[in-house]
Amino acid sequence: MNKMISDFRKKARIYFKTNILFSVFVITSVINAWLLRYFTVNNPFDLWPIVADFSVVLILGSFGYFIAVKHQFKYFLSLAILFSFIGVVNSIYYTNFNSFTSVSLIATTTQLVGVADAVVLDIMQPRDLIFVWQIFALIFVNKNLKNKKYFEYAAKIEVGKIRALNTMVVAIILLGFFTSALSGVDISRLGKQWNREFI
Fold it and tell me: What is the pTM of this model?
């Protein structure tokens, strides 16, 4: 039993030592999702949305393992920029319309270029920009890891396909727990997408 615990600790240590960038991406993404709920629907202590966010971020992040270790930062940074943009847009939209935006509405944001001054001065609040901290956090961590030759060390240990599969399995198990806790009404809200606050 002691040997099993010792082996588990050793493997956990190696995992986290070679997954720093992925871990930072996941943690910052879940924190941003939590901040968005806090600023909008104000249910920061509800466990199930955190589980759902964590699962989705794990699934999206797991695809980064199919990329060479030294290039994973570009993938995680691209997702962080997308998540930050979605957070900023939804925070602004919720403040003005008490609802969340949709993909079709986000597609029309290019039309705001002509009235950008009005958006910044009249609609946007300082807290709406808080979500971009994730981008800077990833850049800062990546720079420090480069200085410590982390990527060379991680590349020797990481087997991308296995880590991607393991991460997806954990995410699917968490999603299973999440969906098992949903009521019939909750499933209807997700399926028909009529309640954006719930989604």
Answer: 0.80
